[in-house]
Amino acid sequence: MASALKDIYNVSFINKLISSIKNEYPPFNGEVFTSAVFDEQWEQRTLKERMRHITLKLNEGLPGDYEESLHLLMKAAPHFKNEDLAAIIFPDYVEVFGLEHWELSIAALEHFTMYSTSEFAVRPFILKDLDKMAEQMVKWAVSPHANVRRLASEGIRPRLPWGMALQPLKKDPSPIIPILELLKKDESLYVRKSVANNLNDISKDHPELVLQLAQRWIGSHPYTDWIIKHACRTLLKKGDPAALALFGYLGANDLNIQNLTIENDSIHIGGDLHFSFAVASERIEPTPIRLEYRIEYAKAHDKQSAKIFKITENIISKDRPLFYKKKQTFRDMTTRKHYPGDHTIAILINGEEKARLSFIVR
Questions:
Q1: How many domains is the chain partitioned into structurally?
Q2: Eight-class DSSP state of 80
Q3: End-to-end CA distance of the chain
Q4: Beta-sheet strands, E only, within 160-303
Q5: Chain mean pLDDT for the chain
Q6: What is the extent of the structural domain holding 114?
Q7: CATH number of the domain residue 171 falls in
Q8: FRET partner for 44 with CA separation of 20 to 30 A, picked from 4, 8, 95, 148?
Q9: Are 309 and 291 in contact (CB under 8 A)?
Q10: Distance in angstroms (rounded) separating the CA atoms of residues 335 and 210
Q11: pLDDT (tens digit, 9 = 90+) per residue, 12-35?
């Protein structure tokens, strides 16, 4: 059975943390710290709750002076370069205790992000002084280190998953754009993914801004084109005509779905829906298509919700029809619970529904 993500914080990690700190600060009491961390509530805590709990207990054993404690942790952090997510314990310390020590804390966040990520810890600083942090992130965006450049984009995402939302930037994302301009041709895929995700966040509140930016950027560099396509994924799923047109998906006239078939019009929760269909074109010239399917799920209390799944992007012409056989699972997941009732599957070409069938989930 796979371990839960929260189990990255375990006895081995705590022992390594104790050892790395005692190397710099021998008075640190590892036994007291271990006992305080693994208390009666430990097993019930989520990942972020465990992280914050460790941060608070760690502070109890460090020197009372923030600058001295921070210096110790900055020396300890390089030992955790391969710990990835677990090492966010270090920037979390800055988030909790460093908001009133601006210069020290910003330098520490830049240091700590080299060994994990400071993307969550920078957000209270952004809310405290947006203009000052936007200037700082412009500086980070030209760092020689990819992890620091990524922090410039990831830390200021308006809707960062697991992070606090930045409401001022959801309303007005203009301070973000100069940062992304500096990163739009970044050589690091790690950075480019962040830029694309940032723009995708912005597109949910300001689609016209992202489309204007995409139209201005497209064709300037292959890295930038990749960012634009990934950034427009929500707009494409919504069938936004301007986003579809940007990538050559110009309507669905003369494009049709034929022989949409499902193997069984009744399946059970935990099973799979198997379906197949063909795509035909009346156009002689090769035509780009974006192919998706939408499941309209039955939910509790006679409600419904729909989710779109991408199948492919392809080229079709009159003499080159396309055939697909797919399946959709109806196993319950942490992100989706299934309910019995009437469901529908619809096939979309370039954002337009072209065929649908109903089926029952029992």
A1: 2
A2: G
A3: 28
A4: 255-262, 266-267, 272-281, 287-298
A5: 94
A6: 5-246
A7: 1.25.40.290
A8: 95
A9: no
A10: 28
A11: 999 999 999 999 999 999 999 999
